[in-house]
Amino acid sequence: AQKVTQAQTEISVVEKEDVTLDCVYETRDTTYYLFWYKQPPSGELVFLIRRNSFDEQNEISGRYSWNFQKSTSSFNFTITASQVVDSAVYFCALSEARNYGGSQGNLIFGKGTKLSVKP
Amino acid sequence: KAGVTQTPRYLIKTRGQQVTLSCSPISGHRSVSWYQQTPGQGLQFLFEYFSETQRNKGNFPGRFSGRQFSNSRSEMNVSTLELGDSALYLCASSRDTTYEQYFGPGTRLTVT
């Protein structure tokens, strides 16, 4: 069965610290997609990244970077030099495209990690 | 480009009533998905529509239903409301079913 585990419920850091949010997933499919979303206090989920199972290249976008390792079924997210505006709940999600005819419409979310960045 | 819009943003209903929530996707997006978010269960997939057809359905009772119109706008309906239906209902749209989803601000439903 598919599952996403975010073991860190809450993390608190001081501004400018680096922080890594962990995500471990379970799937029996060889074709799947992984996502990270940010949910600020306003409630709207903000898309950050999508990665397919055939692309294990790490990605960097500004202060954000993602480390995808199929060998450990992990898709970790690092924020470098954190800022107060990074405070939010971050969700990792999985979509098994093969089971839904290629559709990514069914996202399976982890429970989220609440990140608090203090000035 | 305008984002996903959901109406109403807040709603208070009484147990036993029914409710209809609306979602307007990003212009050009044809796929709409709905999710329920509660503190206990987290984010759970309800259903996905593409070109007016339901493609996927999550594990929710038949009281939860939805539809999509020809302009890609979508509605979801919950009949015979229960206290446990109190949640944030999020709608997401994507260009088609193989692209990333963009979420709206949600409708916060409170059932008393």
Structure write-up:
The complex is a heterodimer of chains A (119) and B (112). With 119 residues, chain A is mainly β. Chain A has no helices and 12 strands. In chain A, strands 2, 5, 6, 10, 11 and 12 form a 6-stranded mixed beta sheet that branches. With 112 residues, chain B is an all-beta fold. Chain B has strands spanning 5-7, 10-13, 19-24, 31-38, 42-50, 53-57, 64-68, 74-78, 87-94, 102-103, 107-111. In chain B, the strands form 2 sheets. In chain B, strands 2, 4, 5, 6, 9, 10 and 11 form a 7-stranded mixed beta sheet that branches. Chain B has a 4-stranded antiparallel beta sheet with strand order 1-3-8-7, with no helix packed on it.
* Number of contiguous helices of chain B: 0
Class by alpha and beta content of chain B: mainly beta
Strand content of chain A: over 45%
Uncertain stretches of chain A:
none
H/E topology pattern of chain B: EEEEEEEEEEE
Quaternary organisation of the protein chains: heterodimer
What is the CA–CA distance across the termini of chain B? 37 Å
Largest interface: pair, residues per side: A-B, 25 and 27 residues
C-alpha Rg of chain B, in Å?
A: 13 Å
Residues in helix, % of chain A = under 10%
Principal-axis shape of chain A: globular
Q: Low-confidence spans of chain B: pLDDT under 50, at least 5 residues?
A: none
Would you summarize the structure shown here?
The complex is a heterodimer of chains A (119) and B (112). With 119 residues, chain A is mostly beta strands.
